[in-house]
Write a structure and sequence with these properties.
The complex is a heterodimer of chains A (223) and B (233).
Chain A lengths: L1 E5 L6 E6 L4 E4 L4 E4 L3 E6 L4 H9 L6 E6 L4 E5 L7 E13 L4 E14 L1 H5 L5 E14 L4 E13 L3 E5 L2 E7 L4 H5 L4 E14 L3 H8 L11
Chain B lengths: L1 E5 L6 E6 L5 E4 L3 E4 L3 E7 L6 H14 L5 E7 L5 E5 L7 E6 L4 E4 L3 E5 L2 E7 L2 H6 L5 E7 L1 E6 L4 E13 L3 E5 L3 E6 L4 H6 L4 E14 L3 H8 L9
Antiparallel strand pairs in B: 1-2, 2-7, 3-6, 3-10, 4-7, 5-6, 8-13, 9-12, 9-15, 10-13, 11-12, 14-17, 15-17, 16-17
Classes of the chains: A mainly beta (223), B mainly beta (233).
């Protein structure tokens, strides 16, 4: 198996070359193109309950497995948003990520939802995604993705954290203590604690949607 | 102070390192990452001597300039250096320009941030100019000394003007003070100007620099808006 990430960081896509018999597990909808030797199979990885848990984690109930049969072949995999893709070799390790960051993996890796508590509700939803095992993991997000080595603590704006290692924990807070920021500032921020790697994206889909909003037609009585 | 611009292409961002006692200002909401010792406070655009009413007036001016009502300020609070990362909403590049002795004038939506030594002031373009300019009624003038961060939708190009240049309203990011400009039709009569789709342009003359963006965000908005369900008025 060989991989190549093309057009990073703006329009990243993973090109995988699979030898006969090798397979890759892909988030549904993320396969862009593939050779005819690559055969897809859709399944509930890990059974029904694992599927349910994934669903809560913002990922799909089903996962697609693409296997090279009767010869080697290539497959191109890209996320729904334009942005960077990060490759991470897991060696019996665990990563936590925001909903929707998972792209694909090779090897023995499991994905399941984690309860992020009510604090998580103010971030990207109450559930996060737990990814653990041994293999090669690909994840990404909207915008450039930057790696930060946290030792102590680090601040990230709400909605910009992509993934973090399991030794990191986070809490949600407001920036500053002034009454002003409480009344007017929209800045809910995540504070990460511990030591480990943290990945941060540089664009927010939510901000883009908020920007587009005023361009929408105003509802009239006839609608 | 050190300003590092990350990645060329669609997803530019800036990582600013501040020494103890230094300060940086940004459009509220532009921060996406910061070291834990960074004190983040939100303040309206206020001059020292203008009091409450002045603060309100300048806040309203900023709103018309297409910026958020509030600016965020960043200062390391423990005597150590700290860092803050700033990124715009749109896909595109971020660029840092030196202010001082040159004074830069920035279109409302293109201002991302500036160092503490820069004085920001909003400028009316005059009634007729402002009415016709898509970029809003007001420009942001950055004077003093330091780094000014601007963001562009798409690619940012710098043009040295000696003589004159014509820039479509929606593509203007910033220009140096000293350049004269008029807002006018792209050419020909009113009808042919409207037919050409260019609408109104800014004609610069004199000596200086102009920063332009390859794409006009309001055109993307114009394409996406009608495709979405109508909003409440």
């Amino acid at each position: 198996m060989k991989y190549n990430i093309v057009s990073a960081p703006s329009y990243s896509l993973v090109e995988l070359s699979l030898n006969e018999g090798e397979s890759v597990i892909v988030e549904p909808g993320s396969m862009a193109w593939m050779d005819t030797t690559i055969k897809p199979k859709t399944e509930m990885k890990g059974g029904f309950f694992a599927g349910i848990k994934r669903k809560f984690g913002g990922e799909s109930f089903f996962l697609n497995t693409y296997t090279a049969e009767g010869g080697s072949g290539n497959i191109g995999i890209a996320p729904g948003y334009s942005g960077d893709i990060i490759v991470r070799e897991l060696n019996n390790e665990t990563l936590y990520m925001e909903r929707g960051a998972y792209l694909c993996h090779v090897g023995n890796i499991e994905t399941s939802a984690t309860w992020e508590g009510f604090s998580g509700m103010f971030a990207e939803g109450m559930f996060g995604l737990r990814v653990s095992g041994t293999g090669l993991l690909f994840f990404g997000s909207y915008g450039d993705v930057q790696e930060v080595e946290v030792d102590g603590s680090y601040t990230v704006d709400n909605g910009y954290a992509v993934a973090w290692e399991e030794n990191l924990d986070y809490s949600i807070g407001r920036s500053g203590r002034s009454i002003r920021s409480f009344l007017f500032g929209d800045q809910l921020i995540c504070r990460y604690h511990g030591s480990g790697k943290l990945w941060i994206q540089t664009r927010s889909p939510r901000n883009l949607a908020a920007w587009v909003h005023p361009f929408r037609r105003v509802k009239s009585k006839n609608d | 102070m050190n300003v590092k611009i990350d990645t060329e292409g669609a997803f530019g961002s800036a990582l600013v390192t501040l020494e103890a006692g230094e300060k940086f200002v940004s459009e509220a909401g532009a921060m996406y990452r910061a070291s834990p010792n960074m004190e983040i406070s939100v303040e309206s655009r206020k001059k020292k001597d203008e009091g409450m009413w002045g603060a309100l007036k300048s806040g309203i001016k900023a709103m018309f300039a297409g910026e958020s009502f509030f600016l965020s300020t960043y200062t390391p609070n423990d005597g150590q250096a700290g860092e803050v990362g700033l990124a715009p909403t749109h896909q595109g590049e971020v660029r840092s320009v030196k202010v001082g002795p040159e004074v830069w004038i920035c279109s409302g939506g293109s201002y991302l941030g500036s160092s503490g030594g820069i004085t920001l002031d909003t400028q009316y373009q005059g009634l007729t100019k402002g009415m016709f300019s898509k970029e809003g009624l007001v420009f942001v003038q950055a004077s003093g000394e330091g780094d000014l961060l601007v963001n562009g939708f798409g690619r940012i190009s710098s043009i040295d003007v000696s003589g004159g240049i014509t820039v479509d309203n929606g593509h203007l990011i910033a220009f140096t003070e000293g350049l004269e400009y008029t807002i006018s039709k792209a050419g020909g009569g009113w009808i042919s100007s409207m037919m050409s789709g260019e609408g109104l342009v800014m004609k610069f003359s004199g000596q200086g620099k102009v920063l332009v963006q390859s794409h006009d965000p309001s055109r993307l908005g114009g394409v996406l808006g009608p495709l979405l369900p109508p909003r409440e008025g």
